[in-house]
Amino acid sequence: MEAKRRNKWLFIVIVLAAANASVLILNIVLGEYPVPIVQALRTALGFGGDEYNYVVNILRLPRALVAFLVGCGLALSGVILQAITRNPLASPGVIGLNAGAALAAVAIIVMIPSFPIAWLPFVAFGGSFAAAAVTYSISWRRGVSPIRLLLVGIGVSATAGALITYLLTIGKIHQVTSAVIWMTGSVYGRGWEHFWPLLPWLVVLFPAALLLARQLDVLQLGDHLARGLGSRIELIRGLLLLISVGLAGAAVAMAGTVGFIGLMAPHISRQLVGASNRRLLPVAALMGGLIVMTADLLGRTAFAPYEIPCGIITAIVGAPYMIYLLYRKRR
Q1: Is 105:131 a contact under the CB 8 Å cutoff?
Q2: Residue 329, Cβ neighbours under 10 Å: how many?
Q3: Cα dihedral angle (190, 194, 195, 196), rounded to 10 degrees?
Q4: Is 94 exposed, middle or buried (0-12, 13-18, 19+ CB in 10 A)?
């Protein structure tokens, strides 16, 4: 039985990897200036000439790769949060991580427009960490209840949203416009200068999450049983929350608040491979990357010459999906 599950998991990973590669190629090929697929691949691999280099290697390839990493980060953050809160509706947007990162990033965009983009993930991480620290400390009462964590997170998210609105009212029109576009969730104009600062966050935090996957499984059994199994609950929950903060903060810093990825990708992946986090985390990462890349492709090509931010596309799909989950939970 275990071998059968492992083979099924491996098959799903291969299919999702192939789907991501296909959507990546479509992102390079399709657009207002179409590129022949063979020339696109040669140019992306460094064997092409200068004819398509700007379109492929400067405009489209880094943008698609940033979209993939953003989807991975938000999906992984969602898996972790759903496990530590034992709530299938938990996501970075629900407990205030996205709002904290957005508040920090909007404050920088509005007040320090010349701030180096490479440092923006660290600022967003600081905002996410501050929101998580406030949420965690207020939720603490001889331990942290998952229900209290969610309720306090909703309050922190609302407070951060109010502060963002205040910043938008006092900022200059140019900075406010940039912040509003960023808040819709978009990878428009993202290049290698965004990809390389984002990549290390995934390279470091994804393996860290995998190392703690078994602890995630234990936390889902409930605090009393987890303690009985010898798990240091508060330490493990704090470490996992820190990993989730880093993943969400870096993703939000580079693409704004792309909604519902941390909710949709874990649920869809769980239906495919089950609840074991050791198998769920890689599948959810691939699923999140696939969703955001596909949303960006649709927003860029389906309504040409107009461009719809990928965050709007994911919200159009994600909001009904959340309503469906709420309805199923009620039943």
Answers
A1: no
A2: 10
A3: 160
A4: buried
Distance, C-alpha 247 to centroid of its chain: 7
Q: Quick one: tokens of 231?
A: 């798990």
Average pLDDT over residues 167-189: 81
Q: What SS3 class is residue 1?
A: coil
Per residue in 179-198, pLDDT tens? 777 777 888 888 898 898 88
Q: Which two tokens stand for residue 7?
A: 């083979």
Ranges of H-type helices in the chain: 2-29, 37-44, 53, 61-85, 97-111, 120-139, 146-170, 173-183, 192-211, 213-219, 223-228, 233-255, 261-273, 277-301, 310-330
Does residue 231 register a pLDDT over 70? no
Sign, Cα dihedral of 282, 207, 75, 140: positive
Q: How far is CA 157 from the centre of its chain?
A: 17
Full-model pTM: 0.89
Round to whole Å and give the CA distance between 263 and 67.
17
Query: Per-residue pLDDT tens for 232-265?
Result: 777 788 888 889 888 988 888 888 888 889 889 9
Q: How far apart are alpha carbons 266 and 288 in whole angstroms?
A: 8
Residues counted in the chain:
331
CA trace torsion 36, 20, 205, 118 (10° rounding): 30
Angstrom CA distances, 35 to 17, 18, 56, 323, stand at 23, 21, 8, 40
For residues 198 and 70, the answer to whether their CB atoms sit within 8 Å is: yes
Phi, psi of 328 (to 5 degrees): -65, -35
